[in-house]
Every structure is written in structure tokens, then in C-alpha cells.
Write a structure and sequence with these properties.
There is one protein chain. This protein is mainly beta and 313 residues long. The chain has one domain: Beta Barrel (Porin). It is 5% helix and 57% strand. It is built from three helices and 18 strands. The strands form two sheets. The chain has a 16-stranded antiparallel β-barrel. The N terminus is likely disordered.
Length: 313
């Protein structure tokens, strides 16, 4: 995941090319066909994202399946970056949610991540615990994080605390990383501005402890449509992670509406922009979305195109 719109916030979301470049239209045939959308239902069960890079003849695909229990609570979110079953055994990202009795919000989640690249294998196994206020808003989460890689085994504890106000809220994240290879403990400060019930702006800063040495940071702004966001309807996700993205695709803000534009500038002057268009089913939820992603990392420019398909039942 990129360290711009993706990994700097939390754990815990599209267009096609042929030869050099091809203009995308809704008539293009996607690489993967999800189950047909049921127009009279709005419970998201599958999300398919096709990623094309300008100048690269090969596309990549991310397939995300969402599982529910009999009470319609999400129990698992499983992401693969391939349609090959053999590859899916080597590379995956899985989240499993646990509930106390009939509670509608999870008390904890287990994340399993495996990435294999040649002889290099990275395996993560994290457990997060959640505390909410009386309104069901997340007050605190703490995660035990375990990583096994070619550098050996590492363990860290990440804690996030939330403070809510009428027009903004803040997140303070502390990562007590015991792995000295990657720099040790860090702290993140995140200020999020709200407009019409959605996150409209983010100010993010990372510091290395001790001494609060600046690490990296960025400022981001967002716009939205007026249609319901299917990810926001999944209570466990919307309550525990405000920002969510699968691989390098369009950032799925777990707000009530669907994000249509993202503009980001890092403190080092790097820029990222993303524009997303949707077509909707009869219930007003996204059926297909198209995204153009532009980034400039100190002179290294990249354009990516995404096409996403949403399945409901």
C-alpha cells in the first residue's frame, strides 16, 4: 500500500488499458465478473477492483469478499490480489470480527496478512480491541501487532484514542514498536474536519520518539456525492476505521456518502490526486466506479486507472 492515501492511517479500499492507453467507458468488459447486483438490496458482499498503470500492459485485480452472520453483522472481510487459487494461498489480507453476545459492534478483530515475493515472505497477525462511548463511537483501540519477515520477528503495540467535537475530531496514535530496524516508537496526530457528516479534510503528522522528531505528514481534502456509501452501511467497518483502502485503489472513506475527489500534499511537497465517478443501482448505491489516480513523488510521476464493481444481496 502506498504511504500516502493508505498506510499512514489505519489498518484495517479503476479503469482498463490495452497497449499504451485506452479510454475507459462503461461498455468495457472487466477482467473479473462478480455476481450480478440485486437492485432491491444494499448489503455489500463483494468488491472487485481492476488496477491499470499507464505504460504497463498488465492489469492487476483485487477481489474483496464480505461475510455476515445471521444477525447481518460482518464477520469477515477477505481480500485477494489474484483470481488464481494457488496465488491466493500465498498472498492475502483477512479481517475477522468478534462480538459479545448480541452486540452490534465488535469488541475485537483479528487481522491476518501474508505477502510473498520470491524468497521474501511477510506474515502479520494482529489483534485489535475496541472501546466505544454510549453513542457507539470509537473511543480507543489497542492492537497487538506481530510481524514475521526476512528481518526476523517483531512485536509492537499500537493504541489510538479519539476525541470528538461538533465539526471535527482528532486521533492520537502511539506505536510502541520494539523493532529497532525500522526506527522504534512513533506517534501520529490526526485532525479531521467534518462537513455534512463526512470527513472533508485531514491534517496528518507523524513523529519519531523520543524527542518528537518529525517523520512525515500530509494534508488532504475530499469531496463527495449525495448517494449512500455501501461500506458505511457495514457497521463494524464504519465504527472502527474511518479510512479504508484495498491495496492501491481508490480510498474508500467510510463516511455516509461516496468520495468523488481526493487532493493530497505531503509536507515534502509530494502530491496525489484522485477523481472517481460512479454509476448507481436502483437503490442509489454504487454499481460501478471509475477512478483516475495521479501522483508526483519528487519528479517520479505515475498515473493509475481503476474500475471497481460492487455486488449486493
Amino acid at each position: 500500500m502506498k504511504q500516502t492515501l493508505t498506510t499512514i492511517l489505519f489498518a484495517v479500499a479503476v479503469l482498463l488499458f490495452s497497449s499504451c492507453q485506452k479510454e475507459i467507458s462503461p461498455t468495457d468488459v472487466p477482467v473479473v465478473i462478480p455476481p450480478p447486483v440485486t437492485n432491491d438490496s444494499n448489503r455489500l458482499t463483494k468488491y472487485v477492483e481492476i488496477d491499470s498503470v499507464a505504460g504497463n500492459p498488465s492489469d492487476t485485480v483485487t477481489v474483496v469478499s464480505i461475510e455476515y452472520d445471521a444477525q447481518k453483522r460482518v464477520t469477515a472481510v477477505i481480500s485477494y490480489n489474484s483470481t488464481d487459487p494457488a496465488d491466493n494461498l500465498a498472498n492475502y489480507e483477512k479481517y475477522f470480527y468478534h462480538y459479545n453476545g448480541s452486540d452490534t459492534l465488535p469488541d475485537r478483530a483479528i487481522m491476518q496478512l501474508r505477502i510473498e515475493s520470491g524468497a521474501d515472505i511477510n506474515v502479520r497477525a494482529d489483534t485489535s480491541f475496541y472501546t466505544y462511548n454510549s453513542a457507539g463511537k470509537l473511543l480507543k483501540d489497542s492492537s497487538n501487532r506481530n510481524l514475521t519477515s526476512s528481518f526476523g520477528q517483531t512485536h509492537s503495540v499500537t493504541t489510538r484514542t479519539f476525541d470528538y467535537q461538533s465539526s471535527f475530531f482528532t486521533i492520537l496514535k502511539t506505536d510502541t514498536d520494539t523493532d529497532t530496524v525500522f526506527g522504534g516508537p512513533t506517534i501520529d496526530s490526526v485532525f479531521l474536519t467534518l462537513a455534512n457528516g463526512n470527513i472533508s479534510a485531514i491534517q496528518f503528522a507523524n513523529y519519531i520518539l523520543p524527542g518528537y522528531t518529525p517523520g512525515y505528514g500530509h494534508n488532504s481534502t475530499f469531496t463527495y456525492d449525495n448517494n449512500p456509501n455501501p461500506f458505511h452501511k457495514i457497521k463494524a467497518l464504519a465504527s472502527t476505521i474511518q479510512l479504508f483502502e484495498f491495496d492501491n485503489g481508490p480510498l474508500a472513506l467510510l463516511q455516509k456518502n461516496n468520495v468523488t475527489s481526493i487532493a493530497q500534499t505531503s509536507l515534502a511537497g509530494e502530491t496525489v490526486s484522485e477523481n472517481i465517478q460512479y454509476s448507481y443501482n436502483s437503490s442509489g448505491y454504487p454499481a460501478v466506479s471509475y477512478s483516475t489516480y495521479n501522483s508526483d513523488w519528487g519528479g517520479f510521476q505515475e498515473i493509475r486507472y481503476y474500475k471497481s464493481l460492487y455486488s449486493y444481496n
